[in-house]
Amino acid sequence: MIRKVLTVFALALAPAAVADTWTHYGGDPGGTRYSALDQINRDNVRRLEVAWEYRTGDLETRADVMERSAFEATPIIVGDALVFCTPFNEIIALHPGTGGELWRFDAGIPTESWLSNQYVCRGVTPWSDGAAAPGAACAERLFMGTADYRLIAVDARTGLSCSGFGEGGEVQIDPGMALLWPGEFHITSPPAVVGDVVVIGSAIGDNARVEAPKGTVRAYDARTGAPLWTFDPVPRSADDPRAESYGGPDGIRAGHANVWSIISIDEARDLVFLPTSSPSPDFYGGLRPGVNEHANAVVAVRGQTGEVVWSFQTVHHDIWDYDVSAQPMLTDLTINGKTIPVVVQNTKMGFVFVLHRETGEPVFPIEERPVPQSAVLGEWLSPTQPFPTSPPPLHPVGPVTSDDAFGFTFIDRGGCRRLLEDYSSQGIYTPPSPEGTIMYPFTGGGVNWGSGAFDPASQVMVVGLGRMYHLIRLIPAEDLQAVRQANLHDEIGRQQGAPYGMSRDLAFSPFGAPCAPPPWGTLVAVDLAAGEILWEVTRGTTEDLVPFLPAMRLGEPALGGPMITAGGLVFEAGTLHYRFRARDLETGEVLWSQRMPAGTPATPMTYEWDGRQYVVIASGGYGRIDTRMGDSVIAFALPE
Hints:
Layout: H1 2-13, E1 18-19, E2 34-35, E3 49-55, H2 58-61, E4 76-78, E5 81-85, E6 90-94, E7 101-106, E8 125-128, E9 140-145, E10 150-155, E11 170-172, E12 185-186, E13 192-194, E14 197-200, E15 203-204, E16 217-221, E17 227-231, E18 264-266, E19 271-275, E20 297-302, E21 308-313, E22 329-335, E23 338-346, E24 352-356, E25 366-370, E26 384-388, H3 410-420, E27 437-439, E28 452-455, E29 460-466, E30 470-476, H4 480-486, E31 491-493, E32 500-506, E33 521-527, E34 532-538, E35 563-565, E36 569-572, E37 579-584, E38 590-595, E39 605-609, E40 612-619, E41 632-637
């Protein structure tokens, strides 16, 4: 306690020393992941070295549950502290220049056999109480959502709970129904704040049941925690005009369509941009016939009321798990001499939708094109899906055949060919079936929650994409138990209440090589104003996947997103191997590379402290894909 008081006192006396602060998870409330700092640039980035490393201690204190965690946090600058959350919902504040711990707050989430999916906390969000006296307790506060579905407020200067918020500094969120397991409903992404309103979504386990927890977005008073408004992407009354898009009373029993990814804010316009997911369950939608309005969409609502201003749906009647997983990116584009406020929505399909921020109207034409229509009895399919005409798709979308199978050897490739022969593909949006479907793009790609980064000077966006095959099969409900007992698949979902369960497997050869042709991960630069792809490079090598062979540039699916700086650099990690890289924004060429202590499924950030620019990233691994686990936050800088 004495140490905490002394460090807080020292912090209060310290002069403001931070420049160009990275104040939000995505760099700014609109998620551009851009910094105007240029001390580190193309000419000197090769000299970057470790400035400090901080260890959270999780590797020792939580060794028994580390394999069920992922360190996906991006720190932010709040006042004179660097702040982040651990996968286990501890908030930690560090000295930006030394990495020394200033304070830490433990939300006390349960970890013993509790969460069967993953412990994840991507970030915290600041808020300043304009009505509070300067220096008052909780005048500056941080909000965090937790694995056990609480919204927590702490003093940004001390790490102490804001007792006036909710009950003792927290609001307990009610999932609205009994959960099948405690972690079926949880929170992984940072809340968003618009004015004095804090908005939060939720993550919900997929493919368990039709009548699943609702994907309600909730808003609370940032001072008191009092509930202000809710928005449910799924209509709950037959009188709701949206109910027709769900086929009536049966359809509106669906759960999900939740906002599990990162929310964006345009405070000047009082707009909150919600990236919604698919209704439950993911791979059978016959009980919710219709396009399912507001699901799989970017929905703009008023921050003060929750009123829907506009909505754009990226997938009609989703049965492919194509959630809107990337943060809506808010920026301005200059096209033909006219500046347009836009929302750029990247998608798992590799499509980029550019929409007018105030109206949701497409900036570039979007075509409704016919898509495959063969489906299981009882399914409903949209005859068309939206395809942007500009920029072009960043991911292949055509049919897959066994001739496309990859292999390091003829034995490897032969195994993949035989595997793919058992599944069908008519290209993107081929519906799932009992016979089996090849999903390409797969459900973890192209662009996932890592989102993109945008350089306002060149109007260039950089995004990372994953390219793998998913093998999807519908399983008649009466056969599900037998399939489970045979343990034939990586993932089996009951989809209780539907006539079919499902299985989902990544396509690998008998020797463990992906069956999809490389590159399995790419980094792509897009001129958003012109709607053109500028370059595409392979992201990741095989050095840690096949350590006994020379590293091959075949790429890897990546989780964390890139960051762009005014130094002409793109910083990115996120792949399964243990590298952090800086690339030339103009060409994609690697200019600097650093070996990391663990898997690094996170997005970097940067700031300046006392005239020195730092680049920081969390390196702690991703338990689901068996990367080396860790608990480090590492800062890099040029030599002093």
